[in-house]
Amino acid sequence: MIICCGEALIDMIPSATADARTGFVPHAGGAVFNTAIALGRLGHETGFVTGLSDDLFGQQLAAALDQSQVDYSHAIRSSLPTTLAFVELSEGQARYTFYDENTAGRSLSPTQLPDLPEAAQALYFGGISLISEPCAEFYAALAEREAQDRLIMIDPNIRASFVQDEARYRARLERMIAVADIVKVSDEDLDWIIGGDTGLDAKAGQLCAAGPHAVIVTRGAEGATAVLKSGAVLDAPAHPAQVVDTVGAGDTFNAGVLARLAQDGFLSKSRFPQIDANTLRNALVLGARVAAVTVSRAGANPPWAHEL
């Protein structure tokens, strides 16, 4: 089992109304939610840890998880509202405005850590849930507690404009990176984490030295690069696609990577350090295929296994 740990929210997607004004349609979303949905659709046993509201939007999220066969029995339920993210699209690129005060997801604290099933071999973390407090400390504490026995993958998916206390956020990321086995970042994320004019491969190697066995850097249409702790560097091309929008692209890339690692038997704490470059490249290739389907249609709508 792969357990995704992070935010579930409602993306309010702009849509033209009958009188030609712009309205917003609620879509189930959130970076980690999207990854969980994609993994479920790819046929992998998937769990989800989040703060889930019992309001109408929380019910929409729960229904979407059910439809994609994701187990959310370890979610922390409450009557607090669901986080809303209003999306602005410009030439297919998404910008977000979050409404996240006192929500079910944000209000999690380290005192609420759930007991996880023994079947969980890997935990995945990411998104704005690593920024907003107190939930960010909930997820950091969960990663630190589980890192000894389970593979940890992190995608910080950094939104610098959302960070209110940069020093605390950077310190938390350092703690989580130190216990991670895999860190996935975009090229922009990597430049934010490690400043200066050093090349991406060198920065990825520097991040790798801080803890993870592998750092994966996505570069949009230029594909992805992985740097291993051994110093090996490998590249995988992007998969061709007619882009409608990029909502959920990185999230579903991560699902493809995790799915292929699980398929090849390397999604465990003991096996992953033994991975070879070709096996990891195959995981990046599947990640690119899954992401290509997602960007070819509106919103975060990951493919089912039969669509690949």
TrEMBL record:
Gene3D superfamilies: 3.40.1190.20. Signal peptide: none annotated. Keywords: ATP-binding, Kinase, Nucleotide-binding, Transferase. Residues 2-303 form the Carbohydrate kinase PfkB domain. InterPro entries: Carboh/pur_kinase_PfkB_CS, PfkB_Carbo_kinase, PfkB_dom, Ribo/fructo_kinase, Ribokinase-like. GO terms for molecular function: kinase activity. Pfam families: PfkB (PF00294). The keyword Transferase applies. It comes from the Bacteria. Belongs to the carbohydrate kinase PfkB family. This is Carbohydrate kinase. The lineage of its organism: Bacteria, Pseudomonadati, Pseudomonadota, Alphaproteobacteria, Rhodobacterales.
